[in-house]
Structure to design on (216 residues):
């Protein structure tokens, strides 16, 4: 789910789960990751930064600049826009609302219109502050799971934002002697990538969906 920059609202700690026996000898880094996963897991749920409207407002997404009716609905949901905001249809069921430096992405999902704030800078700040907080109150190795698609790079490939994510996390993770892995995601208009990062940088990447032919 693409939920962008906001204040964390919930932390859930789950008990360790036993690891199934393996018939192969893992590489040192794989073994370290396995040990971390069998220790504590913190799941970060970020609930603000998105809202949902009835699909009846879909017609308003074809009006430029933004219609007064849709603007009023979003203002009431704490998604303020100026009267100069513009809407662009990216593909069937997906739109982008641009208002100066503010960008909202809209998806038609299950007969609802879901609006997401795309504030990467706020997302990096949330990433850093939440990880710092968890490290201070936890001991031992562990994994911190953030929402997939926490960051959005629009038409640029997701890889253009990898370095900013790892450079934000590495100094924080180096503050502890424990081995902590942080998992989060970077979405672009073309792909959706999950990242696993520890104090050395990115240790694993995975694509959620296959891209179309000719795309990165």
């Amino acid at each position: 789910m693409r939920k962008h920059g906001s204040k964390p609202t919930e932390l859930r700690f789950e008990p360790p789960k036993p690891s199934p026996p393996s018939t192969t000898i893992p590489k040192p880094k794989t073994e370290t990751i396995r040990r971390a996963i069998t220790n504590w897991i913190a799941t970060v749920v970020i609930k603000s930064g998105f809202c949902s409207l009835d699909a009846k407002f879909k017609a308003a997404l074809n009006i430029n600049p933004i219609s007064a009716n849709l603007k009023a609905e979003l203002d009431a949901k704490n998604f303020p826009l100026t009267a100069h905001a513009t809407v662009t249809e990216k593909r069937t069921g997906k739109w982008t609302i641009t208002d100066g430096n503010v960008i909202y992405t809209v998806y038609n999902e299950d007969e609802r219109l879901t609006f997401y704030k795309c504030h990467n800078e706020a997302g990096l700040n949330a990433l850093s502050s939440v990880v710092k907080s968890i490290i201070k109150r936890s001991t031992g190795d562990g994994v911190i799971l953030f929402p997939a698609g926490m960051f959005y790079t629009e038409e640029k490939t997701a890889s253009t934002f990898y370095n900013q994510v790892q450079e934000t996390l590495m100094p924080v993770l180096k503050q502890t002697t424990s081995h902590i892995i942080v998992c989060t995601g970077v979405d672009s208009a073309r792909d959706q990538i999950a990242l696993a990062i520890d104090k050395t940088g990115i240790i694993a990447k995975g694509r959620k969906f296959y891209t179309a032919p000719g795309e990165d």
